[in-house]
Amino acid sequence: MRNIVFLSGAGISAESGISTFRDARGLWDTYNVMDVCSAEAFRRNRQFVLEFYNKRRRELADKTPNAAHRMVADIQREFPDRVLNVTQNIDDLFEKAGCEGTIHLHGELTKARCEVCGNIWDIGYADLVGTELCPRCGASRVRHHVVMFNEQAPEYMRLYESLDELHANRGMLVVIGTSGLVLPVEEFARYASYSVLNNLEPQAAIDDRVFSVHLYEKAGTAAPKIAELARRFLDSDQRGLRDGRAETAS
Ligand code: NAD
Question: How far is the CA of 139 from the centre of ligand 1 (A)?
């Protein structure tokens, strides 16, 4: 039985020095996202896209988790088998923080995938140059294990299963650092009996009234408050909290 689902986006890794999509001073001022992160771009120029992700992978090597990643790992350790961690992020900061079984909806930078047999394996921070062979089937169609625009995202099925489970178990959803443009997190909150939203600022795509609590501040400073709410939820059966009484704690 899982009682809390954490769902994060690029914002949770911002304090660790990884650009979000919408950060004006970020990576996405330099690149047009559809030129580098789409199925079409990859078909057009395989080497260019592989190199784009090589750079992202190299940048990741010295990045360290922040208080929000560590908070999720701590709650997971304190409440074994009751916490599921789901992220849209392709970085490895949850793993570095000690989280177990994180579902990466959009893949992982530190893994490669064979386009022929579907094998997925760890490559750490190494480059993919386009001549690698799959260690399982020997094919030379090896690529980054990242879901790009206009590609299938098979892990979404596990997210939907976890939301059904959350609904059945009257669980808690914690959403951190996502604009809600890719995933309809506002809809997801309706599955939970208690829900927390943490972003830097209100987002046009998210009606925060659906959430029990919203925290508009950096994930690192929100982390202790989220941890407290999570512990209270998991520890107690106080009806007020479990029934999702609306409150604002910002
Ligand atoms: P987004 O860039 O659309 O939105 C970022 C959100 O994070 C905003 O709501 C913003 O308010 C919030 N935010 C920014 N700094 C924050 C902070 N310090 N603390 C708390 N919140 C903060 O991100 P998204 O919704 O995740 O969607 C973009 C897509 O980009 C995702 O699908 C993801 O796969 C991909 N992406 C991943 C990474 C990564 O792996 N770290 C980085 C960039 C983009």
Answer: 34
CA distances from 213 to 132, 159, 225 (A): 48, 22, 11
Query: pLDDT-based confidence at 34, cuts 50/70/90?
Result: confident
Respond yes or no: is residue 144 known to be catalytic. no
Which pTM does this prediction carry?
Answer: 0.93
Q: What is the largest CA-CA distance in the chain?
A: 59
Task: Pick the catalytic residue from 69, 104, 106, 144.
Answer: 106
Q: How far does residue 168's CA lie from ligand 1's centre (Å)?
A: 29
